[in-house]
Structure formats: structure tokens, C-alpha cells
Amino acid sequence: MNKNELRVGNTVRVKGVDLPAKVGEIKETYCRLHTTTSTESSTMTVDFYAPYSGLVPIPLTEEDLVGFQKETREDWGFKKFTVHHRDGVDIHEGNHPTEFLYATYMKGTQRSFKAGRRIEHLHELQNLMFALTGREL
Questions:
Q1: What pLDDT sits at residue 87?
Q2: Using the 8-state DSSP alphabet, how is residue 112 labeled?
Q3: Residue-level pLDDT at 103
Q4: Cβ(114)–Cβ(107) under 8 Å?
């Protein structure tokens, strides 16, 4: 991954590790991450460092859109499509179940702008939501 894609609070994976980790600090060639793991008897939080080349983005899934309102809309009466809506941001589903497209941002009752950016990874959605709303996802 590229350092410029990340910000503190993003969730990523480390190559070879099956736990998500949150970015805690961004340095020139590496970042500090932390993750929490649990067993039946205890919970442990681990802080560690990893180079950007060792980070892997997490593919965006519908489960990552918990907290978004899901609705089906019609496009000028021709085509139905599914939208996940939260805080004025609409995430449109693409042609495949795991494809999401950022489409519109609403402020008040007026549409502020439209764009068509493909959202493939969780950190991209986190960055988009923070940039548009000023709040963490």
C-alpha cells in the first residue's frame, strides 16, 4: 500500500496475518498499528510496526456498510439499483455483489455534487466518509 492512501484510524491487514489492524501513527517508511484479539478467557491489544509494503487493503463488503440505510431506487423509471445511504453519502452497488460505486453527496436538500469513484477497499470508504462528513465511519 501507499503511505498517501492512509490516515490514522484506517483499518488494514498485514500480509500473512488474518486480523484487521487500525493505523495508529504514520511515519515515512512504516506505520504503527494496533489490533485486538480475544480468547475465551482474555482480550489482548497488540501494538506493532509494519512497512507500507507489508500492508494489504481489506476488500469492501456489504457487512462494512452496517449503519448505512439500504434502499432500492429507480433511475428515471428504467433501471432499479441499490443504494446504501448515510450522512448524505450514497454508495451505489455496482453490477456485481461486491462492487460499490461512490455516487452522490447531499448537503441539506440540494445535491452538492456527483462523482463516480469506485470504492474497492474499506480504507477508501473510511477516507471518503471522513473527507465528506468530518466524522469517522
A1: 84
A2: E
A3: 55
A4: no
Cell numbers that stand for 124 in this block: 477508501
Q: Do 51 and 79 fall within a single domain?
A: no
- Comparing 94 with 15, the larger pLDDT belongs to 15
> Which backbone phi and psi does 5 adopt, to 5 degrees?
-80, -20
First-to-last C-alpha distance (Å) of the chain: 21
Is residue 129 domain-shared with residue 107, that is, in the same domain? yes
Instruction: Work out the average pLDDT over 94-101.
Output: 64
For the CA atoms of the chain, what is the radius of gyration? 17
Query: Which domain covers residue 41, as residue numbers?
Result: 3-56
Strands (E), the chain: 11-14, 20-26, 30-38, 43-51, 55-56, 69-75, 79-86, 89-93, 100-107, 110-119
Choose among 96, 89, 97: nearest CA to 124.
89
